[in-house]
Amino acid sequence: MSVTTNLLSGSExxxxxxxxxxDQEVRWCPGCGDYSILKQVQTVIADLGLKRxxxxxxxxxxxSSRFPYYMETYGMHSIHGRATAVASGLxxxxxxxxxxxxxxxxxxxxIGGNHLLxxxxxxxxxxxxxxxxxxxxxxxxxxxxxxxxxxxxxxxPMGSIDYPINPIAFAMGANATFIARSMDRDPKHLQExxxxxxxxxxxxxxxxxxxxxxxxxxxxxxxxxxxxxxESTLFMEHDKPLIFGAQNQKGIILDGYTPKxxxxxxxxxxxxxxWIHNEHDLVKAQILSRFFDLPQDFxxxxxxxxxxFGVFYVEPNRPTYxxxxxxxxxxxxxxxxxGNLDQLIAGSVTWEHE
Length: 354
Description:
alpha/beta; Rossmann fold; eight-stranded mixed sheet; three-stranded antiparallel sheet; 13 strands; 28% helix; disordered N terminus
């Protein structure tokens, strides 16, 4: 529950999720997964006790990038792929703001891929929500950087020949200090992951599977439908064994560095034999990020690797970019004084006309 001070009356106003909703008409297609994500973010921000003026939402271009219009906070609908650049400057200029970057698989991983890489490796203290629907929705259904190979779209009528980007592996390669995955159709889990992003000090990256019911409907149905969800998803919890299945009858073991699915019902393996998830284990997080090759008909496969959801990796104690920058400035001032801008521009060597 959130509390903010009313400066006129001196009273305290209790904010709820609806208080973070604007008067703007939400203009996404009916049934779009973005509605759920918006609701969960509004709920979490209220539950965290944040004030409207403490939050800034920065977006790029795409369906997801309408987000700032619908959040009663500070916000900016910026330019294609550059939301991370704008957010970086904002974090440096005002370290007291809670900055959230909202982007999509096209905006963040195509034209914005370079910017996303650098904001992660620099470890700015902000949260990045990447909506992944494996399609370009705003521009009417072209394949995106995360679309599966052989995807038939308006821009790939014979099927895409590109190999898709794995957003989690991308974030791992960029040295992000918080990496997680959730989905639009699991509100409770999504709220938990959004909250974890905020509580992390550093660059938090959350991939959210988001259904585009117009141009790529059902892309993640195997992970969200009640009939298949438990057999195809692996919800990771720190210090707990990797278990999944309709009756939690399956688990993951490591054979050297090779993950394998085992059955717990036949008596050959027990929970004590299973891989225990550790959010701080970089090597195991790298392996988990590659649990990606799911058969088209997983019911026919005896041992497939389920898709992991939850926190893959956390490095809690790495200094943020802003901290290092402000410390460096402080050191420079202590060593050389506050400086003089006119002298700096003029330089140490000048030319005079005789």
